[in-house]
Specification:
By secondary structure, the chain is α/β, with parallel strands linked by helices. It folds into two domains: 195 residues, Response regulator (Rossmann fold, 3-Layer(aba) Sandwich), CATH 3.40.50.2300; 140 residues, Rossmann fold, CATH 3.40.50. The protein has twelve helices and twelve strands. A hairpin with a 2-residue loop joins strand 11 and strand 12. Helix 2 crosses helix 11, helix 5 packs across helix 6 and helix 11 crosses helix 12. The longest helix is centred in the N-terminal third of the chain and has 20 residues. It is globular and about 65 Å long. The two termini are 28 Å apart.
Length: 391
């Protein structure tokens, strides 16, 4: 299968193809008419600005698939639990999803620390854990037949961004401020690995605790260490906070973030404070006035359903479900964990309507994409500066 377009249209085809097929044996979260998909999102914590639109995007996609008849006659039942970006709450949510709700697939679970705490529970049950909303390397390494990652890893993105800024902007004193957990360490590893490949050293490192709002000491340290580029292992709120502190001190240093910080809220909420911020991305942020007709139609449907504008987080959630649906379509009517895995592994050069990097898997590769582009906030919105790059 090559260059298929992610769309609910294929669900209509697979629904017809499944008509009259023999029923399958009893399996957790699977009946002749339904597949149960679970996820945990931050709907109330520090990255709810990611969790809420991701949930919405997932629900919009599930509704589209169901409206077209499902996949092989099975409709999607999506169950969402709130983790608050707290690993302990995420574990409780996952236990509920596995035991009480009897999910078949964990899809699009949110956050590095929360997923690292919960993914083992899913794998121990022999169930697929696909496309978590974190680009940490642990989502696909070490290789496990039940683990699939959809998003370009943070370390890949930061290698691409670091290389580009050193080579095109002449940066010589690269530093980092990152969240003090596995998310932040993934970002840091990317920067360090690329600097080492370029025979450079990381000049300064500082960290902050998850949920922090005061970055005065971190920014003061980086300024004192004479950094000319600050890599940020931050999400949305912390990115704006770091910029605000630097600008308050009159420090106009360039900063670059990972795909976790590549979000429209950074530009919209940060306003002039974050002007010039760089980040790496996998999917261009959709803006209605420049969107293609299919993307405009999708954005209209999202706003009609949820009463708010779609964003890149919504796109991510939507693609999680649509890629899951593609794997289920390839799996055929007889659905097991093994047949679903085989269906995902058949995906080759899957294309969405948003201009994302193409998605491909194989038996030996469960990471969808390894490239990223560089974008920058200019005039209050994100502007893509490059094609897809490798480090």
């Amino acid at each position: 299968m090559t260059r298929r377009i992610l769309s609910a249209a294929f669900a209509a085809v697979t629904a017809l193809a499944g008509a009259g097929a023999a029923p399958v044996a009893a399996l957790q979260g699977v009946t002749d008419t339904e597949v149960v998909i679970g996820t945990h999102q931050d709907l109330s914590g520090p990255i709810a600005s990611w969790g809420v639109p991701v949930r919405n995007g997932m629900q919009l996609a599930a509704d589209e698939v169901n409206a077209a008849g499902g996949v092989h006659g099975r409709k999607f039942r999506l169950i969402v639990e709130d983790s608050g970006y707290d690993p302990k709450k995420a574990v409780l949510a996952t236990q509920k999803l596995l035991s009480r709700d009897s999910i078949f697939i964990m899809a699009g679970a949110m956050g590095t620390p929360t997923v690292l705490a919960t993914m083992p529970l899913v794998l121990q049950k022999g169930l697929p854990h696909v496309f978590p909303l974190t680009a940490a390397t642990q989502m696909y390494e070490p290789h496990d037949k039940l683990k699939f990652a959809l998003f370009t890893p943070y370390n890949y993105v930061m290698r691409v961004a670091t290389k580009w800024l050193v080579e095109t902007k002449g940066k010589k004193a690269v530093c980092i401020m990152h969240q003090d957990d596995e998310f932040g360490l993934n970002v840091k590893r990317g920067v360090e690995d690329q600097l080492q490949a370029m025979k450079m050293e990381l000049v300064s490192t500082t960290t902050y605790k998850r949920g922090a709002t005061d970055f005065s000491s971190q920014i003061a340290k980086l300024r004192a260490d004479k950094c000319d580029l600050v890599a940020l292992g931050t999400v949305i709120r912390e990115t704006i906070g770091a910029f605000a502190e630097a600008r308050k001190l009159g420090w106009q240093v360039d900063m670059v973030g990972s795909n976790a910080a590549y979000a429209p809220e950074v530009a919209a909420l940060g306003k002039a404070v974050v002007e010039g911020f760089y980040a790496g991305g996998q999917t261009p942020i959709p803006y209605y006035d420049t969107a293609s007709p299919p993307v405009k139609k999708w954005m209209d449907a999202y706003k009609a359903k949820f009463g708010t504008d779609a964003n890149i987080q919504s796109v991510a959630g939507y693609n999680v479900i649509m890629t899951t649906a593609e794997g289920l379509r390839n799996a055929g009517r007889t659905l097991t964990a093994d047949s679903f895995v085989a269906g995902l592994e058949r995906i080759k050069d899957l294309k969405d309507i948003f201009g994302s990097a193409l998605t491909s898997f194989s038996k030996d590769n469960h990471l969808a994409a390894k490239s990223a582009f560089i974008a920058q906030i200019k005039g209050g919105r994100w502007v893509t500066l490059t094609e897809y790059l490798d480090y």
